[in-house]
Amino acid sequence: MRIQLSEHFTYKKLLLFVLPTIGTMLFTMIYGIVDGLFASNFVGQSAFTAINLIMPFIMILGAIGLMFGAGGSALVAKAIGEGEREKANRIFSLLVCFIVCSSILCTVIGEIFLPQIAVLLGANEETYEYCMLYGRIVLGSLIFSMLQNTFQGFFVVAEKAKLGLIITVCAGLTNIVLDALFVLAFKWGLVGTAVATSASQVVGSVIPIVYFLSKNNSLLRFAKPVWNIKALLKTCANGSSEFLTNISASVVTLLYNFQLLKLVGNDGVAAFGVITYIAAIFMYIFAGYAIGCSPIISYHFGAKNELEVKNILRKSLVIIFISGIIMTGLSEALAYPLTKIFVGSDDGLCNMTVNGMRIYVGCFLICGFNIFASAFFTALNNGFASFAISFIRTVIFQITAVMVLPIFFDLNGVWCAILVSESLAIIISIAFLVGYRKKYNYSIFKTKTVK
Q1: Which residue, of 114, 207, 342, 406, has the greatest Cβ tally within 10 A?
Q2: For the whole model, what pTM was predicted?
Q3: Which residues in the chain come in under a pLDDT of 70?
């Protein structure tokens, strides 16, 4: 059953529409974790630590793709809702071309400054060579990584989220199979994990390019791009919160690593790497939901259908609330068995990781609301509100928490920093949702609405 953006969404339709995108995000995260699994179990703890040290830098460069994917999909979906399909295709094509040019520039900058960055991120004698090795290879495929991130949002706008999921699964299977082949069979070590990741990104980006270049029955197709500085600036403004979220997440990860290196050494970085791998699986469910329903909001905002915008908001808040409770319970119950998969051979590291995870995952009760609130305003093409929520949540609250709390609570202060920052951020999210309710006429406090 094909569900169109223009429809009225019940709970069932909404969940069916966003499930492929959630699946796409989850599978993206899961096959990303595979590198860590192979590195920690078959290459060594230093290699695993090196991946976690250098990954924030890779994420910072790749965040540009997420910015154009989120901000651009909101702009394109709004144009489709306004009935301007040709304009939507031209903007879509321009954004993809701009991503290609940006990724080449980012790759050159990354390769030049990688040695200095590795040292800045905390690489030592044990991890420096691994950081350089993994970083050089993965940076070489940055163009494909950025395009893959960009296309995730546009597949939803094109009403082809299931196809996006299929392509992601193909890319993920490529990574998993090649990891096994290169690391276990060919004994390539960390080079094998990096090459496998790069190959999967090629699959995840080239197939969408071929699809949108060919005749298709989706809402989007490549057209002759026309230079439109206004559309580029609007895209950057719309997607600035997603860009900032990924940049700040990388910075926060660096601060976590610095604090953990100071408190417990390399084992702390390894423990945090395991926690973030596992926690990201649950976080990506919220992110997938936000990405999946954002084009619906943008479409109906463009079509001036305020009742449907209000309908999506109310149903989303209910879904996120229930999901948060379920995810927190599951992550608490699965903390030990999931940790054993990564560091089962080291009892001390395993116990440290489990303890940290049981504290860390309390944030799932709250973070979904903050992720959705930021995405909601991105979908409404309100870059300021979206950016403000992300900036206060990630830059101010998270950085302050991870720097201050360990002073008073030592290692537990590191683990609970995310819970404290998300708890403070929800106040900001609520303030913006209430503050803009009259402008967009979506008040969640009125009882009269669509069913």
Answers
A1: 342
A2: 0.78
A3: 1, 31-32, 344-345, 443-451
